[in-house]
Amino acid sequence: MRLLAAFCLAGVTAFCQQPTPIAITHVTVINPGTSSIQANRTVVISGDRITSVSDAAKVPSPKNTRVIDGTGQYLIPGLWDMHVHSVFGDWFPGGRDIILPLFIANGVTGVRDMGGDAAALMAWRKEIASGKLIGPRMVISGPMLDGYLPNGNLRFPSSIPVKTPADAIAAVDSLKKQGVDFIKIQSEISLDAYRAAAAEAHKQGLPIVGHVPDKVRLREVVEAGQTSVEHLMGIFEGCSTEEDKFIQGQGNLKLLLGTQDKQRCDSLIKLLAQHQTWQVPTLAWQRGGEFLDQPDPKRAPLDKYVPAYWRDVTWRRFTDEMMPDLLKDPLALRQDYFARNLKMVGAMHRAGVPFMAGTDTAPGVYIMPGFSLHDELANFVEAGFTPMESLQTATSNPAKFLGTQASMGAVESGKNADLVLLNANPLTDIRNIRKISAVIVAGRLLDRAALDQMLMQVEAAAKRAK
Ligand SMILES: [Zn+2]
């Protein structure tokens, strides 16, 4: 007992929470990274690690373990949402009790936070690592580098204003001191400041990721060594024979779609493939954002997890802000644009451009934590990925991108015990990703009953939140 307490104090919390190892027997293991499917495995988890994956027919059921019969079930690595904002100024009150459990309840055991309050996020990360709080693993950018809007304001909270190259260098240096994992770029930053930020980030050993700023070309972003590009930014502009007009801020959607040039596009896609510039197309949000004026029946069942403030203040304000621009383009044009988003993702994928799943939850209007990642995986399949390739975007690809393949992204001995157990095969229908029978995060098992309990607590928290 005393020894156990000492372990807990020392922060070896997996042992406090989960003294008994877990064995999932007779399960089909899917490893997207190697496109492998192995039937009838026994997977043993001890502490916060996977300690063995073996042929269930050849090994006896391990003793002194909690045995989960995985017959007829599928085990995949925990999912990562590579574009989230979990703490975004005052936009999401109550987020700690809503956003974090919704990720976990949906099998999202890791997130890349693409802009937020660094101190708050790092405090959460610490609590999660110590086992005090259940939530996903996090990599964190802290505040985003952005320029001012013409009205003199910053568009988003959790932003650092950057006007000059000197501002950019100071911002990167200050974020480095705060211990962030990477630098996130937003849309309003100038080309000079952008280049200075990229150079300083490289000097400080921090990856630079994010938007293709309005005044910058996709080609320039690739050449500056940006490692991920969000929301398919810059690609349609770069494929357009009128790219200059867009850089000067004189474009519109009709011009964009009417001036796409195959040769320009092929050479740009080739450049992205050569540089292995990761794409996080956030298709769930692209789709949602293009059709904000259209009722979406998918929202209704998730309403109970949405605090009134998010719906009536945050998302309303954001919608009101976007709507005038949106309504300039007829619905048919926006539908065409989204269809071309899917086609573009398919074309880039076939050309060898690497992809990751990201959603832009929670600022994306009704882009719900966790649930939206399942939508995104279905979007990839709609764009032409196989279900296995779609699973890669949220498992092995994030591991590759983050350089953490030794510890995550696969169901293998020695890896973190972050796993999702499914009742149905996601390879026959990617929507089976929703049929979760258990989530294991850092070795902690949450069975269906525990997950349902979490969801009920989220519902209560959403009602409570002001
Ligand atoms: Zn975002």
Give the distinct bound molecules: zinc ion
| Topology, number of strands | 17
How is the biggest beta sheet arranged?
8 strands, mixed
| Structure classification | alpha/beta
Distance between the termini: 42 Å
Helix content, binned percent = 40-55%
Q: Overall pLDDT, averaged?
A: 94
Strand content: 15-25%
Count of helical regions: 18
Shape: globular
Over all CA atoms, what is the radius of gyration?
Answer: 22 Å
Low-pLDDT residue intervals, each spanning 5 or more residues: 1-15
Q: Any overview of this molecule?
A:
- By secondary structure, the chain is an alpha/beta fold.
- It contains 18 helices and 17 strands.
- The protein has helices spanning 2-9, 13-17, 95-105, 118-129, 165-178, 191-203, 218-223, 235-239, 243-247, 253-258, 262-275, 283-290, 308-326, 331-350, 371-382, 387-392, 396-402, 448-464, and strands spanning 22-31, 36-46, 49-55, 66-69, 74-77, 79-84, 108-113, 137-140, 144-146, 159-161, 183-185, 208-210, 228-230, 278-280, 419-422, 436-441, 444-447.
- It starts with a helix and ends with a helix.
- 48% of the residues are buried.
Quick overview:
This protein has helices at residues 2-9, 13-17, 95-105, 118-129, 165-178, 191-203, 218-223, 235-239, 243-247, 253-258, 262-275, 283-290, 308-326, 331-350, 371-382, 387-392, 396-402, 448-464, and strands at residues 22-31, 36-46, 49-55, 66-69, 74-77, 79-84, 108-113, 137-140, 144-146, 159-161, 183-185, 208-210, 228-230, 278-280, 419-422, 436-441, 444-447. It is of the alpha/beta class. The site of zinc ion has 4 residues, from loops.
